[in-house]
Specification:
3-stranded antiparallel β-sheet; 10 helices; alpha+beta; about 290 residues; Jelly Rolls; about 30% helix; 6-stranded antiparallel β-sheet; 2 domains
Length: about 290
């Protein structure tokens, strides 16, 4: 019964996400979010304000959340989110990877962020492929006054080809801690301005196609000595897996060999191909062997 229930949930939220470009899933993970916020209190206090108009001079941002708190994993590997991400990105890649984890604090006086589409960090063709899925997790209530994420509904997909002003009006996504705003990389969005006297805190967890260069350098954020403490699923998500054919390999093998006890000095390359590629290569090799015989 549980599997069918989650499948129905996945289909319902996927349909809404693809139709609108975003969806808000209420009451998804409240205790872990509160614990993560508490663990990051010192990081929020110690991190300096950003520099530059895009990040915001009244905003604090930092990554590597999986190294900063054990509670970050519950957000990153949330089963419903992972199932939804697989449904949206699965048609375009062999494996999904973690794009970033980033904590964000908008302090009083923070200005609204430039409206943007996160997929534009890559130079892929817009309008046909979805390159990433973002999940915004609020640590404090998000309101229209304190800088709630602004979304332009129906600005996603093929609408990204329209370079004019967005037709729809912006929508501030107000939500409580524990809820999650999920939106596509093709959806026009931006942080709102903070007109209150309190800090708005939260984090964003982002997933992208496994053959892209991620926003956050995952191997530097989580080198082997750190990733060895992760579950196999989490280690794979942060880059310790190959994307067929042979992308992201180490000495011609899956980089997960770096997480084992003894790493050979000369491991030897092993094909990692999609089934269609493996069949093509097998047929070609067989033909060459017949010629030699």
């Amino acid at each position: 019964m549980t599997v069918h229930y989650h499948h129905a949930q996945t289909e319902r939220w996927t349909e809404r996400l693809l139709a609108q470009g975003y969806c808000v899933i209420p009451d998804l993970l409240t205790p872990s979010v509160q614990a993560l916020d508490a663990d990051l209190a010192e990081d929020f206090a110690s991190t300096p304000f950003c520099e530059g108009g895009f990040y915001g001079s009244r905003t604090k941002r930092f990554g590597r959340l999986l190294s900063r708190s054990p509670h970050a994993e519950a957000l990153v590997l949330n089963p419903l989110i992972m199932a939804l991400v697989a449904r949206v990105l699965g048609p375009w890649c062999d494996t999904v990877q973690l794009n970033l984890t980033q904590a964000i604090a908008l302090h009083p006086g923070a200005l609204p962020q430039l409206p943007h589409r996160d997929q534009d960090m890559w130079r892929g063709a817009p309008g046909e492929v979805e390159y990433l899925v973002n999940v915004m997790w609020p640590f404090t209530p998000y309101t229209a006054d304190n800088g709630a994420t602004l979304v332009w509904p129906d600005s996603h997909g093929a609408r990204a080809l329209d370079l004019g002003e967005p037709v729809e009006e912006t929508l501030p996504i107000e939500m409580a801690p524990g809820s999650a705003l999920v939106f596509l990389g093709s959806t026009l969005h931006g942080a709102g301005g903070n007109r209150t006297g309190a800090v708005r805190r939260g984090c964003i967890v982002s997933y992208c196609l496994g053959w892209l260069k991620p926003y956050e350098n995952q191997w530097l954020a989580y080198p082997p000595e750190v990733a060895r403490q992760f579950s196999p699923e989490l280690a794979a998500l942060v880059g310790y897996q190959q994307h067929r054919p042979n992308l992201g390999n180490y000495e011609g093998q899956c980089p997960s060999i770096l997480l084992g006890g003894d790493v050979p000095n000369h491991p030897g390359a092993i094909d990692a191909l999609r089934p269609d590629q493996a069949a093509l290569v097998a047929d070609y090799v067989a033909g060459q062997q017949l010629q030699v015989a």
